[in-house]
Design a protein that fits this description.
Distance between the termini: 45 Å
Structural class: mainly alpha
Shape: globular
Strand order of the largest sheet: 1-2
Radius of gyration: 21 Å
Order of helices and strands: HHHHHHHHHEEEEHHHHHHH
Largest sheet: 2 strands, antiparallel
Helix content: 55-70%
């Protein structure tokens, strides 16, 4: 009984810590998205289209920052089609989670750390641009913003009381006391520049943040319980038995939507249990809670499965390539 209580206390402690620091990041993200929806309308969509081509560069550089919050932000932004898929994919691949602190704590050579970070950034950029290019070829790159769709599916009521623009009721709303969005069509064009207040924006952002936080916390408790019960030693034995098999295994473990896998993989690499290929495959797919937020916000299951499969395949491919070429860090 005492052991059970100890495990439960340990799991809850880490789960709370893993969840709490995400709250301000998520809230700020939703405030920005709601502001875009309420105040800029179609102008934001056009601006994103004009700057989206360079998105994978920015995504890969931002994602490499040592924490897993940006992957959650990127998942939300892509679900709303504020950023391109290539930008989102670049963030997922370059996300470092807790890798950097572990490598520093284990006194890894600076050159080794810079090489790993540099390779993750490079792969993120390359695969991000490749993904966007394939979508352009398939004519699937021109998608409208879905911020309002996310709002509607979560029942945040941010558009309660709004009247529809009769020529385009599925896209836009006219101004009311509670909500102000851009009304635009061929024969009637106006932007509501007057202040409708921040209350509906903050209210909707807060509701989104609470819903996502609860979802992440529940899943994190489950995942931390599994990791606590299984233990790192069992994971190490599984991964060290065969380095080629370890690449597939490390990538599979890296898919666990939590910051813990990046810690385990980095530690096992520093201890010599994992080779460079397995380490890279695991860290490339260790996108933190980004995949949880993706599943929660992007209500298109087939798309989500494709993203996860592509992420796993990318991690395995680069891991096998590193092993084949004998690259070390």
């Amino acid at each position: 009984m005492d052991e059970f209580l100890h495990i439960a206390e340990h799991v809850l402690e880490h789960s709370v810590a893993d969840t709490l620091y995400l709250i301000p990041i998520l809230f700020v993200t939703y405030v920005v998205m709601e502001w875009l929806e309420h105040r800029t309308g179609h102008k934001a969509q056009e601006a994103v289209k004009r700057t989206g081509a360079a998105g994978p560069i920015v995504g890969a550089l931002v994602g490499v920052v040592p924490q897993c919050g940006f992957s959650a932000v990127a998942a939300t932004l892509w679900a709303g089609r504020v950023i391109t898929f290539g930008t989102f994919f670049a963030v997922l691949l370059s996300t470092s989670d807790e890798m950097l602190p572990i490598l520093i704590a284990e006194q890894a050579p600076i050159a080794t750390i810079l090489k790993i970070l540099g390779v993750k950034i490079m792969i993120g950029m390359v695969m991000g641009f490749a993904a966007d290019a394939m979508l352009r070829v398939a004519h699937r790159d021109n998608q409208k913003l879905r911020i309002h769709e996310i709002c509607a599916q979560d029942n945040c009521h941010c558009t309660d009381g709004c009247t529809t623009c009769h020529e385009h009721p599925e896209l836009v709303y006219e101004h009311t006391d509670d909500c102000c969005q851009t009304c635009t069509h061929e024969h009637h064009h106006h932007d509501h520049d007057h202040d409708a207040g921040w209350k509906p924006i903050l209210k909707s952002a807060l509701i989104h943040t609470i819903q996502i936080t609860i979802f992440i916390f529940i899943i994190t408790v489950i995942l931390n319980t599994v990791l606590e019960v299984v233990g790192e030693d069992a994971l190490g034995s599984f991964l060290s038995s065969n380095q080629t098999l370890a690449i597939f295994g490390a990538a599979l473990i890296g898919l666990i939507p939590n910051c813990a896998p990046s810690i385990v993989i980095a530690q096992l690499y520093m201890e010599g249990v994992l080779g460079a290929g397995a380490m890279l495959s695991g860290l490339l797919v260790s996108a933190g809670v980004g995949l949880l937020v993706l599943i929660r916000t992007n209500r298109h299951p087939v798309q989500n499965v494709i993203v996860i499969v592509l992420l796993y395949a990318t991690g395995v491919f680069w891991g096998l390539l590193v092993n084949l070429l004998g690259i070390t860090f």
